[in-house]
Structures are given as structure tokens and as C-alpha cells.
Amino acid sequence: MALRYTFANQKGGVGKTTTVVNLAASMALWGFRTLVVDADPQCNATTSLGLDARALERSVYEVLVGGLPVRQAIVSTRWDGLDLLPSTPGLAGATVELNAEPAQERVGRLARVLAGVEGYDYVLVDSPPSLGVLTVNALVAAQGVVVPVQCEYLALEGLTQLTHTITLVQRALNPNLALRGVVMTMFDRRTTLANEVVSQVRKHFPKRVFESVIPRSVRLSEAPSYGEPGVVYAPRSQGAVAYLCLARELLVGDGHT
Amino acid sequence: MALRYTFANQKGGVGKTTTVVNLAASMALWGFRTLVVDADPQCNATTSLGLDARALERSVYEVLVGGLPVRQAIVSTRWDGLDLLPSTPGLAGATVELNAEPAQERVGRLARVLAGVEGYDYVLVDSPPSLGVLTVNALVAAQGVVVPVQCEYLALEGLTQLTHTITLVQRALNPNLALRGVVMTMFDRRTTLANEVVSQVRKHFPKRVFESVIPRSVRLSEAPSYGEPGVVYAPRSQGAVAYLCLARELLVGDGHT
Ligand SMILES: Nc1ncnc2c1ncn2[C@@H]1O[C@H](COP(=O)(O)OP(=O)(O)OP(=O)(O)O)[C@@H](O)[C@H]1O
Ligand SMILES: Nc1ncnc2c1ncn2[C@@H]1O[C@H](COP(=O)(O)OP(=O)(O)OP(=O)(O)O)[C@@H](O)[C@H]1O
Ligand SMILES: [Mg+2]
Ligand SMILES: [Mg+2]
């Protein structure tokens, strides 16, 4: 049974997609069969893995709302052991359609869908920058939530709301959900602000912040334009190496050696 | 009658809040009476203007959903001529409440509220990173939409969806809505990627991209931790000067000399 992790933070642009894509690619490189679920209508994870969201006929939308068996929407990527349940811009419509469902279905649909998926060691879910129905579905479907936090002052603000939402989901919808960890992203060691943010977050989430801190690295932001994860596009770059270390830290923490 | 501009882009972290706050502060510095409306439950614009969202009893939420007269929720900031209609984390609940209203009210509530506001030259609305009911309200309430676009590859992806949503709003809800302009943000001149993104966006939106390009500047991201706009906190910094130039460009374009 796969370990299912959701990457969530309603603050925009903090590195959710970049973290999902680079962790998944690192895991696949080391032989872990990995499925990325793109639950964001922006389709950034789909594009970052080299696929054209507009060209795909089946996506997580048809699975969530149209009842399509999930196996029929999953596609393989260029990399062995790395598959994708792609998104589509039309997923934005799912919010309205899911909200019309009875409560249990409204938030539990993705969990029901992913329960039927076999043959993976890891399932990593990318979510949109909101605490709406798609993100709640992703939290209900997961055993752990990983929170990317940008090393910026404004990124601190939303952490209280996010932990509040996680607690609500744990109490009412998914008692198994654990905070798997916080990843500090876009760290710029030249600024005191970044150092201050890291120490504040470590205080706020004692023992929960991954040791591997992801530096700001242009290579990581260039990689999606080539449809490749940073760890493939520029494996010796600072950003890629940091993600490989993070992947190793996560895998060791999960009991893999 | 004030000119009402909404700052929208569903891509997260592209500089919507930073642009609203710095343009508003620049306008107030030059004597234009300006109101910032924080329509994002993250409350980043409220914090960036030195106010504590959790300490305020009245916000845009009570106005939108609770029928509070807007005058009673507007607060002044430390700077003359710059007022704020603050947000609150509870605004996230407005999505559910507004969705329960009949269609016209659901999307037209903010427009109705702002029609009753007098005494300002400009009203600038900050919106959340989504195309949901709060952003649609903001688009219906505005005469112009300003689109901040980060100089990153992934930021290009969402532009088609955004222009599609703007067109829908123009056709069905607000025929007066115009694309006032696109602002390129977080430009890093050392990277070829940034230059490529700017030229792609200029091709996509001919004559609509503001000349003033906002560079990546640490001072801009430090300013919110002091509760001040960048143009006040570090007025001679690259980022602040770029926003002052952008404000001037916008004001001149609106016929002010
Ligand atoms: N460590 C990094 N260094 C430099 N650029 C980065 C880094 N991580 C991400 N980026 C870039 O910053 C932007 C935001 O990252 P990303 O899209 O992964 O964030 P997100 O949280 O998924 O955004 P959204 O909230 O819109 O879903 C992207 O253009 C990405 O390429
Ligand atoms: N030109 C800039 N240079 C450096 N940092 C910047 C710049 N503009 C914004 N920032 C910082 O980048 C982060 C994202 O900017 P901001 O919060 O304004 O974007 P946003 O689009 O409003 O985000 P959201 O989608 O979450 O509402 C913030 O931490 C901000 O301080
Ligand atoms: Mg993303
Ligand atoms: Mg914002």
C-alpha cells in the first residue's frame, strides 16, 4: 500500500509544485514507484513533468466528477517508475460540482479514488493555493501532509490558518492525517529575513522542519520550461542537490534505507 | 467617482499584494486619496499596511456577508490619504456563504458595496490566488483589472485561463471591465528565463504590458515585516523606485499629470 502525502499551503507560489515534482523524480530515480496526482487546475505539475494538460483527454477531473476509473487517466512520464494523474484547466469546475454533492462525497471523493490505486510505493498530491474543496479532498486522501514554506515574511502569516484546517480535517474527516513535515523553500542565505523566517518556523513547529533547506536556485525555475524536474534538468545545481537530500531525509524517516 | 482597479492572477505568489500596497502608497504620497480593499482571506495586504487582521472587529467579511455598512469597516492607515477595508481569516467562509446566494448577488455583492463608497480617487482591490467567488466579485466591482505576472515560466501557464475568466466576466457580468495592464514582477536581469518570459508576455498582450518592470528586490519582501509598503520602508531601493515609476505610468495613463 502506497504512502500518500499531500503538499499543501494556501499561500501562493511557495514551492508546492516544485517540491512534489522534484521529490517524486528523486524517489523514482532510486527505484521507488511513484505517482504524482496533480489536483490543481493550474496544471503546473503536469507541465513540469513534460505533459501538455490541454492535449490530454483524461485527467483527474473525469475521475473525480465523471466516474472514470483512475487507471484509465494515469499516464506514464519519460522517467521509469514515475507516473502522473494529470490535471486540466477544467478542474476549476470540479469545485462547483463537488460542492453540490453530499458532505461525505464532497470531501472524500479523492480518497475513494486513490484507495483503488495499486502498484506504487508513494503517491504525492499537489494542491492549489487555497483551502477549498480540492485541497480538503487532498488532505482527506493522505496519511501525511508536507507543508512547503517560503523563507519570506508573508509566508508566515498563513501558517496558523493552515494548521487550523489540518486539525479540522484530522478531527472530522481523516484521523490518520499527520503533519509529515515542513520544508523551507527559496532560502536566500544573503538575507537576514530568510534566516529569521527559518528560526521562527522551527520554533512554531519544533522537530517538524526538515533539515534539508531548499535554496533559491534559477535552475529549479528553468526546469519546467524544459518539461523536466530540476533533479533531472540540472542534477548538480544547488536546488537539485537540496531536493535529493530532502528526498533521502524523507525516505530514511519513512524507514527505507 | 473613484477609479476601481482589481489586481488578479490565480497563480500564487506573483506579487498581487505587493503591487497593490506599493501602488496605493505611491498614489497617497502624491495626494491621491486611495482605498485598498483586501479581498483575500490571507490578509497579506492588511498586514503589509501595518494592521493586525486578527485584532480588527470589522472587516470586508462583515460588509459582504453581514450587511455592515462599508464606512464602518474602513480604517485609516499611518499614511495620510491611504485607507483600508481590511480582511480577516474568516473571509474564507464567505465563499460558502456567497455561493448560497442567488447568482446576481453571489458575484455582484462587492460591486454593490463599493458603489456606496465616496471620497476616494482610487480603489485598489487585492484578490486571492484563485478564480473563485471572491476574485469574480472583485472583477465585477472593477473598471479595470491589473495582472501582475512573475517573470517565471510557470507563471505563463495560467494566463490563458485568466484572460478566459476576464472575458466571461466582461460578457456576462461587467461589460465595463477592461484589461488595464500587465505588470512584470520579480524580474531578475541575470537570467535569460526572465528576459524570455517578458518578451513572451509582451507578444501575448501587445501594448498592454507596463513599461515599468519590477525587479526582484529583498527590500520589498522585508517591508511587510515592518508593516510598511516598500516605497515607504526603503524608498531608494530598486524595487521601490520601480513601483514609483509604475504608479506614475498608471496615473499618467489615467490622464493625471
Ligand atoms: N527553490 C527555488 N528557487 C527558485 N525558484 C523556485 C524555487 N522553487 C520554486 N521556484 C519557482 O518559483 C515559482 C513558484 O513555485 P511553485 O509554482 O512550485 O509554487 P506553488 O506553491 O506550487 O505555487 P501555486 O501556489 O501557484 O501553486 C515557480 O515559478 C517556480 O519555478
Ligand atoms: N519584486 C519583488 N522582489 C522580491 N520579493 C518580492 C517582490 N514582490 C513580491 N515579493 C515577495 O514575494 C512573495 C510573494 O509576493 P506577494 O505575496 O505579493 O504575491 P501574491 O501574488 O499576492 O501572493 P498570493 O498569491 O499568495 O496572494 C512575498 O513574500 C513578497 O514579499
Ligand atoms: Mg503549484
Ligand atoms: Mg496576495
How would you characterize the largest beta sheet of chain A? 7 strands, mixed
Shape field of chain A: globular
Mean pLDDT of chain A: 96
Name the pair of protein chains with the most residues at their interface, and give those residue counts. Answer: A-B, 38 and 38 residues
Write the element-wise H/E pattern of chain A from the N-terminal end onward: EHEHHEEHHEHEHHEHHHH
* Radius of gyration of chain A, whole Å: 17 Å
What share of the residues of chain A does DSSP label as strand, in percent?
5-15%
Bound molecules: adenosine-5'-triphosphate, magnesium ion
Task: State the assembly state of the protein chains.
Answer: homodimer
Structural class based on helices, strands and sheet pairing of chain A:
alpha/beta
Distance N to C terminus of chain A: 18 Å
Helix tally of chain A equals 12
Number of strands of chain A: 7
